[in-house]
Amino acid sequence: MSYGYERVVEDTxxxxxxxxxxxxxxxxxxxxxxxxxxxxxKEKLDVDFxxxxxxxxxxxxxxxxxxxxxxxxxxxxPCNVVLWENDxxxxxxxxxxxxxxxxxxxxxxxxxxxxxxxGLLEQAVDAV
Length: 128
Known about the structure:
By secondary structure, this protein is an alpha+beta fold.
């Protein structure tokens, strides 16, 4: 099952990380949160894991519009963009499918916002 839009890039996770941040910024998103899963698992569980990062991205005007329509929408924000290192030295970059995520609300009136977010996130991922 797919929860988002992804592509594999023939570069290191560090290179892809910098490019996806730039591409998100061009589309009005900022990165509010960052989780280095590899580091966190090592510190908390002493477990080794592949390089894996979760970026919490937010487009303030769109997020404000969504919160103005539904206060609890904050439970579903920010939009996650995930990067992970593959065994063949490529990197996968993936962005949440906002339409699937917002479907939990049962509100059809949020579909237009979700489609807008998906379009911007897909553009950013494709530009990497």
